[in-house]
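STRUCTURE REQUEST FORM
Protein name: Glycosyltransferase
Source organism: Saccharopolyspora oryzae
Requested output: structure tokens
Priority: standard
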Amino acid sequence: MTTLFVATTGGHLTQLEGLADRLPPDGDALWMTPSNAQSTSLLAGRDVEFIHDVNSRDLWGVLRCVPIAHRLWRKRKPTRVVSTGSGIAVGVLPYLALRGVECHYIESAARVSGPSLTGRILRWAPGVRVYTQHPYWARGPWHYGGSQFDRYEAVTATPRIGDRIRVVVTVGGSQFPFRRLIAALVPLLASGGALERALGRPVDVLWQTGAGQVADLPIDPTPFLPAADLKAAVSAADIVISHAGTGSVVTALDAGRSPVLIAREERHGEATDDHQRELAGELDRRGLARHRDAGSITPDDLMAALTTSVRQRQSPAPFALRSRSSRRSS
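Status: completed
Returned output:
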């Protein structure tokens, strides 16, 4: 038996990797995802089928997944498929479900109030079981199996600050720029800036800037980092400031950091919708992060993050997949 784990890169892949150990075991594991710095680092040493990029609303990219799914079905004989999306799931799950493979689609934890476009499509695909990570919209075909964030809890911490304040700013691996966040943080984090004045220590910043054009800003940008390098930087940081993408959020929480989150907004061309605002609000409600607007972050927000730590629960509940005998309701 073989379980095929399917996800595009970024938060979708990070979530799936985190959920995989909470699923009932079912033989060998095979991963299917695009190849980039994150995926090659995160899945190093695992059995991986690297494929082309599948971008947002990329119909051609979705269709190109179908022959790959067919080839894997013939050669690897997967008995179960689990996916956290996004578009790659539309190209793989319906086809393999028609071939009799047990298929499960777990909607991103970022979707706090309802499903994504991928979820709205797959809920109608015969043989594909669909899950939400938020119990308050588990209805109709949507089953609540657990949440990516159930394994974390916030605790008060005594900060151990060295001679310098180490800050990581990350906008993730999105194809959309988030210059608005970077530009808003420059006066706060610059040498002689507001944070340095508040804490009386110099500030060192890792600027992970993504696809945005930031050459005119007075920073040393790093567009993208391998997952292992970003994880190491976040683990060593005193403060993490991040877009509200699930991959970046999970990286911070896994490192024990309570990040300050700024949501991408559709009206600024930073995302295809405003689901990040919902996720940031949910994590703020849970006490795991602080949700702020780009222009309203203060030194007090950053100092509050210094006094909050996040720890992982010893034994998070398994993610409950529906059995073969369970029926879908409409």
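Reviewer notes: The domain at 159-306 is CATH 3.40.50.2000 (Rossmann fold). The two ends are 30 Å apart (CA to CA).
Form closed.
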